[in-house]
């Protein structure tokens, strides 16, 4: 690639990423008063009348707003927008579709130029809908990616990169294919996927035309940085040290050249001096500032290992370097020894390995094999249950949601079930009410339709019920919305009431009814006491009928729902009572007024308590022993709640903290999250901000470094054995040898 300026071959610098770098530079303490950078930034703002961007800069940098300058820019922006709107209207009335598209595109580009992000994205979306050409659609997507990179909007970048990849597969031209690789490489570098970034950059060294992102010299700098940390020595030599395009530019990048060749030529002292310069440069680069400590630490490890911990050492001479055909078995085994030398490196490496595996599983959710997709979804669910990874999930939010939605829409049975569970876990991982509400609003319609789809698998519908209830619970919906969701869930489990007495219901259908009832009860905990009191008059009868179900989970769920209603209604009315007789009996006895209210209340309570006592002491042999034990334990607590108004008293210890469960509502919420997270519940209680907010646990505790590393059980056993042996030897010397004393 020639070094001369070839910007005319690239797209326009809109938005200009150099301005984002200027703004970032001024946020650094050592440069916040740099007059030259501030002047460059203000000159660019004045030149393009960037009123929205100027307001953003003043807010982030705590500058005093120049009111006359801002008002003047706003007036000129409004005049320009009016002219663009007139041009769009004229094109729609008098010209063709191509002219309409061009008019909309000009407006979108202008909004992007002045820094109005939301309006620009909306205008580009409208322009995209009017665009037919594949190449022009890709150009709009590239524009959206640049906006995402300008504002570091990871969701916007990942979503548009995925769209660009799908369009490229349909038949993108050579130039746009290479351009997409540069965009992917830059974003991979931003999210610390240095290996992928190195691959993308090296593929486009000789075809680089993406001057709208960066200068070619900056591109070469990034390529060298990424290659040195990601490539083995033989590839580093062939692709970078002997790369003609890179060498041509390195003559003007003396710091990068010295850094590269001091490492390659084994000049240890010079390398660490140059590494310090690289560290400073990376700390002042907005794309690498959050990773420069990690990068420097990794480079130090590579150099200091010097063959001791890596199968392919970098700091060795060419004569001593291993051939390309060397066995990699020793590399794998030796790599383990490096990790064992430092706990910090081990922990970091394990996290990176996990993230790499999760990325692979995300890609595998689109494979052709249905069982393979199910396994990938299950692996993601298992990881997000066992680990709290909000940053990883937030950076791939739209990708993961698209995978889950695709799995529910196009999959069958087990795939729909695992995809629905993944969606619930994403709500919990993101840890924001706004994110949960967005997920709930976007997927509510389809979740409702799948939940009511009788042709779908009962197991999948059961998981959809649980996901729907959890999403609505986390989304902080208003009362009317919660009631609508509860009505939809009630329509599922109420079919158990309408079934004929001799009908045998399959276990999968009973599981569906149990899941719907559990989700209904979870939302019941959000209702105000007055609403629970009103609801009790109609729902208690139905729940009592479910106590006769053949499924133990459904019986226990109905009993806990009664306890929840009883607990909430008693907050409103301490003398709460209800009629448990069937609806037919109620109709037959409407005219009978023989019993006064007090005696009727007593008889109803006695009848309910008698039914609960039967379940609490059930010993029928046709029930499984485990089911009998679980049922008796649950209904004893439910009976105490009805008779004595006794709330649960459970203390759950996790780490150094304790969660006190002192109400049926809190207990059911805890049980619902336990069902979702399984063994990862304690970890999420300790780290997940949203879960801690739900259970009023406050901010997460800081880890105590002294207690961070626990002794393994086997090591503890050996230590105890050694102590026992030493103690026995010491005592043996002082014991009476039972010698005869005369």
Automatic annotation (TrEMBL):
Keywords: Coiled coil, Proteasome. It holds the Pfam family IFRD_C. Residues 74-108 form a coiled coil. The keyword Coiled coil applies. The keyword Coiled coil applies. It comes from the Eukaryota. Residues 68-239 form the 26S proteasome regulatory subunit Rpn7 N-terminal domain. Residues 325-643 form the Interferon-related developmental regulator N-terminal domain. Residues 688-739 form the Interferon-related developmental regulator C-terminal domain. GO terms for cellular component: proteasome complex. Belongs to the IFRD family. This is EOG090X0ARF. The gene is EOG090X0ARF.
């Amino acid at each position: 690639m020639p070094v001369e300026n070839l910007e005319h071959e690239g797209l326009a610098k809109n938005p200009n990423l150099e301005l984002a770098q200027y703004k970032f530079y001024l946020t650094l303490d050592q440069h916040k008063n740099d007059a030259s950078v501030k002047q460059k930034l203000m000159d660019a703002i004045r030149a393009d009348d960037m009123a929205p961007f100027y307001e953003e800069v003043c807010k982030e940098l705590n500058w005093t707003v120049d009111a006359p300058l801002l008002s003047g820019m706003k007036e000129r922006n409004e005049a320009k927008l009016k002219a663009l709107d007139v041009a769009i209207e004229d094109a729609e009335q008098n010209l063709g579709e191509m002219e309409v598209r061009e008019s909309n595109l000009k407006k979108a580009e202008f909004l992007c130029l002045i820094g109005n992000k939301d309006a620009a994205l909306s205008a580009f979306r409208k322009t995209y809908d009017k665009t037919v050409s594949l190449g022009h659609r890709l150009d709009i997507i590239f524009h959206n990616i640049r906006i995402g990179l300008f504002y570091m909007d990871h969701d916007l970048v990942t979503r548009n990169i995925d769209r660009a990849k799908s369009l490229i597969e349909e038949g993108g031209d050579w130039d746009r294919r290479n351009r997409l690789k540069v965009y992917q490489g830059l974003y991979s570098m931003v999210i610390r996927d240095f290996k992928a970034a190195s691959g993308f950059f090296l593929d486009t060294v000789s075809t680089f035309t993406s001057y709208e992102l960066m200068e070619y010299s900056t591109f070469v700098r990034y390529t060298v940085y990424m290659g040195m940390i990601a490539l083995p020595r033989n590839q580093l030599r062939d692709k970078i040290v002997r790369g003609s395009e890179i060498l041509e530019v390195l003559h003007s990048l003396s710091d990068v050249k010295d850094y590269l060749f001091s490492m390659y030529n084994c000049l240890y002292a010079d390398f660490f001096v140059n590494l310090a310069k690289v560290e400073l440069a990376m700390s002042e680069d907005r794309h690498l500032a959050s990773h420069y400590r990690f990068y420097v630490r990794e480079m130090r490890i590579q150099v200091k290992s010097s063959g001791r911990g890596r199968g392919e050492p970098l700091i060795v001479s060419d004569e001593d370097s291993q051939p390309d055909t060397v066995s990699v078995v020793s590399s794998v085994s030796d790599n383990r020894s490096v990790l064992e030398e430092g706990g910090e490196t081990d922990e970091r490496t394990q996290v990176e390995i996990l993230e790499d595996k999760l990325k692979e599983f995300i890609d595998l959710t689109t494979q052709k094999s249905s069982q393979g997709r199910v396994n990938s979804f299950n692996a993601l669910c298992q990881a997000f249950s066992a680990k709290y990874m909000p940053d990883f999930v937030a950076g791939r939010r739209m990708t993961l949601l698209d995978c889950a939605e695709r799995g529910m829409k196009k999959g069958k049975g087990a795939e729909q079930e695992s995809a629905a569970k993944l969606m619930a876990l994403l709500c919990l991982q993101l840890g924001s009410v706004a994110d949960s509400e967005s997920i709930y609003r976007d997927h509510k319609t389809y979740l409702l339709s799948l939940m009511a789809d009788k042709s779908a698998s009962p197991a999948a519908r059961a998981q959809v019920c649980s996901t729907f209830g959890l999403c609505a619970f986390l989304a902080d919906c208003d009362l009317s919305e919660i009631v609508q969701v509860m009505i939809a869930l009630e329509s599922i489990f109420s079919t158990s009431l309408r079934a004929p007495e001799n009908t045998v219901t399959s276990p999968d259908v009973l599981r569906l009814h149990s899941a719907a009832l559990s989700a209904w009860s979870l939302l019941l905990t959000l209702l105000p006491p007055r609403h629970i009191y009103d609801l009790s008059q109609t729902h208690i009868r139905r729940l009592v009928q479910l106590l006769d179900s053949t499924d133990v989970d459904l019986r226990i769920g109905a009993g806990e729902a009664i306890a929840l209603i009883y607990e909430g209604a008693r907050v409103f009315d301490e003398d709460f009572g209800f009629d448990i007789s069937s609806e037919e009996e109620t109709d037959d006895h409407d005219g009978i007024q023989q019993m006064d209210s007090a005696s009727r209340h007593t008889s109803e309570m006695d009848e309910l308590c008698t039914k609960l006592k039967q379940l609490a002491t059930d010993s029928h042999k046709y029930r499984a022993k485990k089911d009998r034990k679980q049922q008796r334990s649950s209904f004893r607590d439910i009976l105490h709640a009805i008779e004595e108004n006794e709330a649960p008293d459970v203390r759950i210890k996790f780490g150094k903290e304790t969660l006190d469960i002192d109400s049926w509502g809190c207990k059911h919420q805890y049980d619902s999250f336990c069902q979702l997270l399984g063994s990862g519940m304690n970890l999420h209680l300790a780290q997940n901000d949203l879960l801690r907010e739900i259970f009023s646990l406050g901010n997460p505790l800081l880890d105590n470094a002294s207690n961070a590393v626990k002794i393994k059980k086997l090591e503890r056993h050996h230590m105890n054995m050694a102590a026992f042996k030493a103690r026995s030897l010491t005592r043996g010397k002082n014991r009476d040898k039972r010698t005869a004393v005369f």
